């Protein structure tokens, strides 16, 4: 398998964690999201979406991080990233989607660049936008997890899941932009436990081949 990735992409970070948790190897091909020429070449020759991550597999090119992780789950079910019961799976997927659909799109690099380049916002204003929506989304995720009462060492009990694959990259980026994490102590504690584990450490942006 070949993973098209960018070291600081939170979506690619999710897939790197999932691959590591499942003990799967994938060649990495770095795509510099800040280089328009590199992006154009990638879109033309590898992935017409022009986004990362993308996974070249025996079944063809797979795109979108959660779809890729679910594919890995179906092809390589052990160790599982989704619990057994339908109710528990719905909970884990909901937590993952609160990050991937409610937080990430509003704080995506393409959105932030558009706010600055096309709408003329200052970097301070763009950073303020980022912090507002990330802090808002994490507060809602914290409330959801606490209300559900299913968390333990991780978001679902004591085993890392799809949801933890999404949480750790989001908190990494939140800290990069100096977000206030005081309102989500459950998430911060879970993140700390995740980052003690080797599969999460090996997926960290700082140790990727294209880290800058």
CATH class of the largest domain: Mainly Alpha
Strand line-up across the major sheet: 2-1-3-4
Rg: 17 Å
Give the number of DSSP strands. Answer: 4
Would you give an account of this structure?
This protein is an alpha+beta fold. The chain has nine helices and four strands, in the order βαβαββααααααα. Strands 2-1-3-4 form a four-stranded mixed beta sheet, with helices on one face. β1, α1 and β2 (27-30) form a beta-alpha-beta unit. α1 (10-21) packs parallel to α3 and α7 packs across α8. The chain is globular, with a radius of gyration of 17 Å. The model has no long low-confidence stretch (mean pLDDT 96).
Q: What keyword list fits this structure?
A:
four-stranded mixed beta sheet; alpha+beta; Glutaredoxin; Glutathione S-transferase Yfyf (Class Pi), Chain A, domain 2; 212 residues; 9 helices
């Amino acid at each position: 398998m070949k993973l098209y990735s960018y070291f600081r992409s939170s979506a690619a970070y999710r897939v790197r964690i999932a691959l590591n948790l499942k003990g799967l190897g994938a060649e990495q091909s770095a795509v510099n999201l800040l280089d328009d020429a590199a992006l154009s070449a990638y879109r033309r020759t590898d992935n017409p979406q022009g986004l990362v991550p993308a996974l070249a597999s025996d079944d063809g090119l797979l795109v979108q991080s959660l779809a890729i992780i679910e594919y890995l789950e179906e092809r390589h079910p052990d160790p599982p990233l989704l619990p057994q019961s339908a109710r528990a799976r719905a909970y884990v997927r909901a937590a993952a989607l609160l990050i991937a659909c409610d937080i990430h799109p509003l704080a995506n690099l393409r959105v932030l660049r558009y706010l600055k380049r096309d709408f003329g916002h200052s970097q301070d204003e763009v950073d303020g936008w980022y912090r507002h929506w990330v802090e808002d989304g994490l507060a809602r995720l914290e409330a959801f997890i606490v209300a559900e009462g299913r968390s333990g060492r991780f978001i679902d009990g004591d085993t890392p899941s799809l949801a933890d694959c999404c949480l750790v990259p989001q908190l990494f980026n939140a800290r990069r932009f100096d977000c206030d994490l005081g309102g989500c102590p459950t998430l911060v504690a879970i993140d700390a436990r995740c980052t003690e584990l080797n599969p999460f450490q090996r997926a960290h942006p700082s140790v990727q081949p294209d880290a800058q």
